């Protein structure tokens, strides 16, 4: 468990303290993939670097598995950091060392001297990230995705219980991003380690995270299970991120519904409800008509979900909505959204 207690952080700039993170509490539980999303300058890097104390908090406590990181001596902190792996946007590999030497580096740093032990561990790690054939290459001979795989192998070398990912896919194209995120999800599942990642892309959160915190100008404005935050964003900043990830839905919300006859509704289906033909059944039973304005079916991590924006007409619309809710479908009336909420 990673626990932030009343943590805040200011940087000293031109003799003045400038706040980067306002006081916050946050728990990240063992084995989850926790995302922190925010725009540039929101404080994401600061927050993630507080976990391994690459940044020291201006106040408050950071507990990792019950140990207060702020109380450790330098030697204790070095030891603790070996159990907290980290990967970076620009990979931070040693250019003059081979892939195998880069992965061996943290093992040597931790005091391992036995060449055979190191070789076996490096082989195992390179196999895990799919780079066994590239052990003797130099970083400059690898693609971005391969470099990040080396970064991941290196971060896992000392069997950490936590992996911190600092914009780990921001320098990669969408296909490579998807492959690296799949690898992170696999590592989380199989090694049961906790992953904390920061990103400015909601799609990264949607693909791999269990929970998410939205950071806006140094404040956590919203947090919770990804499906809840994604399907029912409350804060305008969250809504903007979600709309980036759901362009069709965004277009639907901004359509001129004032001219569409009927009540404008948004239906959200999760899990099994995504595949049941409830809408057709309810329409037949209650004699309502519906017109689909926007929609999509996708996945939030392993959870299938669907969202439909539709206009519904008929004398028994309220009855239809009650039946849909009973079938496990979330129903929101969106004609009543204020212009601010539609942003
Ligand atoms: N070492 C530093 N000294 C002074 N100010 C800093 C320092 N590091 C960060 N800041 C400031 O703190 C705020 C938060 O920065 P941080 O890098 O944590 O944000 P971020 O969300 O990670 O941004 P980005 O996505 O651009 O990396 C910014 O206003 C930034 O200018």
TrEMBL record:
Question: Is the Cytoplasm keyword given for this protein?
Answer: no
Matching Pfam families: ABC_tran, NIL
Bilayer topology annotation: Peripheral membrane protein
Q: Name one GO molecular function term.
A: ATP binding
Protein location: Cell inner membrane
SMART domains per the record? AAA (SM00382), NIL (SM00930)
Kindly state which keywords UniProt assigns to this record, in alphabetical order.
Amino-acid transport, ATP-binding, Cell membrane, Membrane, Nucleotide-binding, Translocase, Transport
InterPro entries of this UniProt entry? AAA+_ATPase, ABC_transporter-like_ATP-bd, ABC_transporter-like_CS, ACT-like_dom_sf, MetN_ABC, MetN_ABC_transporter-like, NIL_domain, P-loop_NTPase
- Segments forming domain ABC transporter: 2-242
| PROSITE patterns reported for this sequence | ABC_TRANSPORTER_1 (PS00211), ABC_TRANSPORTER_2 (PS50893)
Q: What is its main location?
A: membrane
Q: Which domain of life is it from?
A: Bacteria
Q: Name one GO cellular component term.
A: plasma membrane
Which terms under GO biological process does the entry name?
Answer: amino acid transport
Report the sequence similarity comment from the record: Belongs to the ABC transporter superfamily.
Physiological role? Part of the ABC transporter FtsEX involved in cellular division. Important for assembly or stability of the septal ring.
- This chain belongs to which protein, by name? Cell division ATP-binding protein FtsE
Give the originating organism.
Answer: Dyella jiangningensis
